[in-house]
Amino acid sequence: MGLWSRFKRSMRSLFGGIVEKTEDPERILQQTIRDMRDRVPELNNSVAQVMATEKLLAKNKERLEAQVVELDSKIKASVKMGRDDIATAYIGQLQQAQVDLQKTSQQLEHATLASKQAVKARDNYVLQMQKRSAEAMQLINQSKQAKLQEQLAQTMETFNLGDDASTFNEMRERIDRRAAAAEAKMQLGAASVDTQMQDIEREAMDMQLQDKLLEYKREMGLLPSGTSQPGALPAQGETGTGIDSDAVLKEGAGSKE
Fold this sequence. Notes:
The chain is mainly alpha-helical. It has a domain at 20-160: Helix Hairpins (Orthogonal Bundle). The chain contains six helices and no strands. Helix 2 (25-80) packs antiparallel against helix 3 (84-158). The longest helix has 75 residues, at 84-158. The chain is elongated and about 170 Å long.
């Protein structure tokens, strides 16, 4: 192999690889579908022209048939009138009309066959286009799925479970520390002075309610008047032992004198 041939082969392989990388299968398939659909109007125009030719030939055939009938009548009328010269002229026209009618009939047969073939070809093309479009859509979906799988594969390649696991452990440890600190603050708050004062106030309220209940019972005669009220606070000037403090002070002063 010569040097020039090797160089051309290298260039083809180089540019061929570049072109192949730049080609997007999805876009190419979509463009192919668009091109196939764009050809449908052109096919319809071609079929319409063939059908128009058929219809024109059919009209010419009808006209020539009518002309043959008319010339035949004229020939008969000329013969009856004894005008052989006129009849001869009409016979010449009749022969030409018959020749034209035969040619037109043959052309019409070919045009009718061509019209049917054109319509059939157009229908086959539309059917193939629909089939190809469906196949193209399937291929496009497969291409999209392949791209997604490639992206997932690349993500899995760069995915490091150890790093993420350490991150989760670190975050779990931080959350546990915050939860423990919050629980400790709640316990300290429950044992604070404010909480103790609230307990004392609540107990005092209960004692007042009990005293009020005994007072109602005493007024109703359910309890003797001298019954002590459990939990009641001593009145002013009394001690918890029931001894008058003023009397004790007077006795102490007399003994000194």
